[in-house]
Structure formats: C-alpha cells, structure tokens
Amino acid sequence: MPSIDWLPWHTAAFLEAQRRRRPVLLLLETAWSPACGRVRDEVFARPDVVAAVADTSVPVRVDADLRPDIGDRYGLGHWPSLLVLTPEGHVLTGGTHLHDDALAARIRDAARAFASHDGAWPSAPRVGPPDSTRLDDNAAVLDAFAMAIHATRDPRTGACMHDGTPSAGAALFALAQATARGDADWASTAADTIDALHDAAPCLDDTGVVAFATDADGLAPVARLEDQAEWVRVMARAVGLEPLPAWSTQLDRLVHGLRSAFRRDDGQWRPWTGGPRLVLVDASARACRALLAAADALDRPDLAREAIEALEVLAPVAYSRGSGVSHTIADGHARGPVLLDDAMLLAHALLDADAWRTDPVYRDLAEELVRTSLARLQEPAGAIRDRVAALAGAGQVGRLADAHHPITGNAAAARLLRRLFPDDAGHAAEARRILAAVTPEALAAGAFGAPVGLAWHAFGPAGAVTAAW
Questions:
Q1: Where in the chain is the domain with CATH 1.50.10.10?
Q2: Which part of the chain is the Spermatogenesis-associated protein 20-like TRX domain (predicted)?
Q3: pLDDT of 247
C-alpha cells in the first residue's frame, strides 16, 4: 500500500525542494496526541492524499516535543499542524483541520499557487524582539497581567482556562496575587481554577493522573509529565498557604499519580504515559521541582530524597559544560537541540534541591547555568533567545533564522536571578530588563503569559516567597 515518504527537518529536504522547485509540506505532530495518531493512521493513509503529496511536495514531518524550537515558530496552536512552505522555509498557507475530504485538492491547489510564482516568493520580513521599553512601575505591570489573566476566566466556573483546560500557570499567578495583596477575589480565582481540574481530568480521582488529551471520538486520554508536575506544584503552593484537608488529599493523590505513572525504574521520567524510553529534560526538571514542593508542603523528606535521586540521574547526562543542557535524552545519551527552557528549569530544580543539602554544589551549578545562558543567548535589548543558531540540520532555514524569546525560559531566568542574588541591585536590574523585553508578548498571550506575571511578583512584597514558585 502506498505511503508518504516523510523526511526529517534537515538541509537535504530543503535542498530537494529547491532542486525540484516544489513546496515543502510540513507536518508538526506529537506522539501523545490522539488527534495526531488519527490523522497519521487515517488521513495520510488515504490514496488521494498520498498521491497529492507525491505529485506536488517534499514532505517533512517534525515531532514538536522533540523540536520545540520548530514547533514554537511554525505551530498553529493545535497539533497536528500542517503547513506549506517555500524551499526557503517561509509559510505559504497552513491549517489544523485535516479531516476535510478536500485535503488532497487543497494540497494540489497550494502547489499550483507556488508554481504560478515560478518559486519566486518574497522572503518574509524578519520580526525583531518584543518592545523592550523599561517597565519600572511594578504595581502597574502586575495590574496589566491581572487584567490579561482575569480575562481568561470561565464565566460559569470562575476558573482561568487555556485551550479549554484549567491553567496551572494562571492558578500560580492567582495564588501570588492573593499572597502579595491579601486579595480575596484572587484567592477565590485560584480555588476555582484548582476545583476545575476535577472536571477537566476525569482520571484524577481514580489514579491521581492529570490526563487532558481526550477527544470527541472517545480515544483513551494520554497524560503528560509537564501537566502532572505543574499541578503538583500548584497544589503544593496552595496547601502551603492554606492547608485545607481536601487540598492536602488532592496533593497526595497527585503526587501518587506523578510517581506511579511517570517515574521509570532507571530513575528517569516518562514524558507521557505509555511513552517510549525517551527523556524530555524540561518536563523532567518540572517533575523534580514538583516532588520538592510537595516535600515542603506535606513535610515528607522522602519525596525530597526521591527528587534529588532523580536529579542525580538527570543532570549529569543532560548537561555538558562545553555545549549546555540538551532537550532530550535517549538511550542514556544527550540528544536534540540545546534550549533555554531546559537549562532554566533544570537550574530551578537544582536550586530547589539545594535547600535539602548541606553543600553548595547544586547552587553553584544553577548559577553556572544562568550565567552561561545569559552570555550565549541574551540580546542587547534584554530578551534571551531560545537557542544558539546553527547552520547544520537546516538550523537557519525560514523562521529558525529569526530570534525567538520563549516566555517560560525568560521568566525562569529572571526569577533565578532574584533567587540567586536577592540583595544585588545589578542582578535585580538585569532581571527587570529581561522581563520588560518579553512583557508585551506575554500580556498578549493570556494564561500562557502567566509565568512572566509571576516573575514580576518576585519584585513585590511577597517576592521572597514567590520567586521560588
């Protein structure tokens, strides 16, 4: 049976497109998404779609979890995303609704439109870094984030939502608002967002696992380590502020789900339930942070020991002083791109673990990760890029040549500076400069921008507490 001969994102694929004067058909997918699996097995197995791709395009497939640098630049908000690119990597068209019976015809139409220009499409304009105007009024900035995140509340439940599910990042911001300002409304918003987790994650009561990835066809939900870890951290912070019995019980249940569903026998973490023997370093660092937060909230040193054991397995493989922190680990070896988010989340996990140790090794390594990332990736305006640009592997094709300043990584870097150097005015100014550079984008991102709002709280009256959140 004919099938599509997908190529990886590599220089050879784009050179082939140039040689044959064809567009590139880019499929961005994830291994855990039921929707991606259905498209892979049904839509791209249809003879008319296979023929349309073979006749018109150079097909390239990318796992967005393994290459978030590509997913962040080309993703259309949902997985799978299908885009038609020029051989130079510029976007011609794209979409996420791939079950349309006319997909084959639309692929052919896009190829004809490309051919009608004889391949001479204008280059997309380069997008510069976000406005880096200095933002000195901390209260005004936090008010702006409060408005942006408040706008994501579900009018029925009062929960802050992102893509139809309760937002852990928004819940943390709400807890910080309630802590710093003694605001009962924000305490209520945090509680409403936490309560919404039960309806959004149907397996939670039975297994303690946060599984959001359900779909209309009733396929089995798949849980991601990142979601599980973030909700453990939210509940740990909530219990630390208000040790309600129901919240303590839910935190216990979530910790059980984290350990039973995601911890592997070799000490590493599964990136999603049923996943391969692959490690995503950013998600694994989140999991270690979650255990350490739960250890504090529940007064359970055994969880801290387990988190430190996991870090002792993760960090030596993921980090190389010569290159940085790799995004993935496969077969015991560091793989994939070296990205800002992985380094900053690992540094936070090390700094969390430092409180449970008597020597400064973890703190020193966290500081090294921050200093190295700033030296390699920070731009003059203050924002920090996600990666070191490289020509190898089509690393400078299309949007990969444009600077990208990830919200999570920049917010984490700013908070790390506050945690490492709480009394240093110079580092405080540097942290503010980073946040000022990414704040316009974060404010436009709704609940997704909550980490930057949380980082601004590190300069407020509760900053000594929230900087570690």
A1: 138-466
A2: 4-101
A3: 96
| Predicted pLDDT of residue 212 | 82
Give CA 252 to chain center in angstroms: 25
Measure the CA dihedral 207/212/218/221, to 10°: -50
Tens-place pLDDT, residues 448-469:
999 999 999 999 988 989 999 9
Q: Are 63 and 31 a contacting pair, CB within 8 Å?
A: yes
CATH topology of domain 138-466: Glycosyltransferase (1.50.10)
Q: What is the pLDDT of residues 311-344, one digit of tens each?
A: 999 999 999 998 899 999 999 999 989 999 999 9
**What percent of the chain has pLDDT above 90?**
84
CB 345 within 8 A of CB 294: no
The tokens of 460 are what?
A: 């407020």
Average pLDDT over residues 234-240: 98
At the second CATH level, the architecture of 11-116 is 3-Layer(aba) Sandwich (3.40)
Residue intervals in the chain for CATH 3.40.30.10: 11-116
CA separation for the pair 63, 43 (Å, rounded): 17
Using pLDDT thresholds of 50, 70 and 90, give the confidence band for residue 118.
low
Tens digits of residue pLDDT in 239-272? 999 999 999 999 999 999 999 999 999 999 999 9
Instruction: Answer whether residue 136 shows pLDDT above 80.
Output: no
Residues 6+ away with beta carbon under 8 Å from 392: 11
Count of other CB atoms within 10 angstroms of residue 102: 10
Task: Check: pTM over 0.85? Answer yes or no.
Answer: yes
Question: Please, which residues bridge with residue 95 across strands?
Answer: 82
What's the per-residue H, E or C state across the chain? CCCCCCECCCHHHHHHHHHHCCCEEEEEECCCCHHHHHHHHCHHHCHHHHHHHHHHCEEEEEECCCCHHHHHHHCCCCCCEEEEECCCCCEEEEECCCCCCCHHHHHHHHHHHHHHCCCCCCCCCCCCCCCCCCCCCHHHHHHHHHHHHHCCECCCCCCEEECCEECHHHHHHHHHHHHHHCCHHHHHHHHHHHHHHHHHCCCHHHHCCCCCCCCCCCCCCCCEHHHHHHHHHHHHHHHHHCCCHHHHHHHHHHHHHHHHHHECCCCCECCECCCCCEEEHHHHHHHHHHHHHHHHHHCCHHHHHHHHHHHHHHHHHHEECCCEEEEEEECCEEEEEEEHHHHHHHHHHHHHHHCCCCCCHHHHHHHHHHHHHHHHHECCCCCECCECCCCHHHCCCHHHHCCCCCHHHHHHHHHHHHHHCCCCHHHHHHHHHHHHHHHHHHHHCHHHHHHHHHHHHHHCCCHHHHCCC
